[in-house]
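User: For my dataset I need records formatted as: sequence, then structure tokens, nothing else. Please produce one.
Assistant:
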Amino acid sequence: MNNLHLLSKNKIIGKYLELEKENEALKKKNEFLEKEIRKYKNSNTPSSAHPHLKSNTSGLKAKKGAKRGAPKGHRGITRLWKETRDKVIIKDKQCPNCQSHNIKDKNIKTGQQEEIPPDIEPEIVDVDRYEHECNECGFKWIARDNKTPLKGRLGINLMVLVIFLKFIVRGVLRKTAGFLEASFALKLAPASINAILTRAAEATTKEYEQIKERIRKSIMVYIDETSFSVNGKKWWVWVFRSETDILYVIRKSRGSNVLKEILGENYAGTVICDCWRAYDFLIFANIQRCWAHLLRKSKELCTSVAGRHFHEKLKKLFEQIEPFNLKERTEKQRARKYKQMTAKLKSIIDYYSKYEDCQSVVKYIDNHLKSWFTCIKIAGIQPTNNFAEQPIREPVMVRKIIGAFRSEKGTQTYETLASLIATWQFNKLDLKQELRRVLTAHLC
């Protein structure tokens, strides 16, 4: 390029056109790569979702003075010793080295093992169910024993096992059918597995509606949503988490109509959420915007000096929330602190609004300026939406495994059973016992 003065005019023009073409190709490639990176590095994607983009910490040394091993209170992996009726004595009669029978017993090593039968087959029971008629009033009915389903050839325990394989082990229909055949000599088609799940969901609809009603009446709810393909179209899985319940709903929309359906138009509790515009519908609610989303967004600005300072100031402001909330505070103290923190945040964004690369985050904050410190004004509120992001990881895992729901009926089955199981787990209830209770009450 230093010898341009030696080239003819036409050759210089030719080289310029080549460079322009190369530059255009590089621009397109750069746009594509930036688009791919945004799938992982954005304010809506937590760092745990892309560990391959984290810095390598494998070579870091442990803190000086830190103790090795399990943390205090860890239960360990040793199983408890149990009383048994059977005993196995393992003893040799000759030396395995020289085959001599002149041997003596030196010691006995005592242990326990848990085992299952090599072949587990389902029990098949003939059922004679009587139909009765009252000689006095003429009333007719079918006899129930509260443990045998009125319809179908599959018992309650088997239905519970299928639900466990689907929702606890996250088994797809085909592999669930294969497991049942290999483990229990039970031949069921994938369609039969799906029919069991559908029937169980229909039987538990009442309990699902009760969760929905409790969510609507709750004084505080954490909300999040994520996309899910249904028949090749983009739908949305919403999660609503209160202090006692977890509710999943799967809808075609990501709009405010879902909030209207679940919470109602006049919901006046506290909602912890991100800055998605659908939540602006909740005009009577106290809104706490998610600081985790904000800090992930501001961290993207750290490529510039102003952006890095902006992020650090926001981070320090966020770090003041927890120490304040750890102590008992009066309503007056909370109101005063809320006003101070909001004013401090306002002064920070006013200062950094003059930097072009910071303006997107400034606007992001300013659009919901009064909603960043609701957790200061109201006791018991978290500054982040992590309590909703935790349960929504489950449908995200399911999405990675199955790819999509094949029917709208499948979405109803999933949201019903997933909500019940998540709520029971959240309240540390016995899943098997709860499933048996609900299915027996409605099917037997």
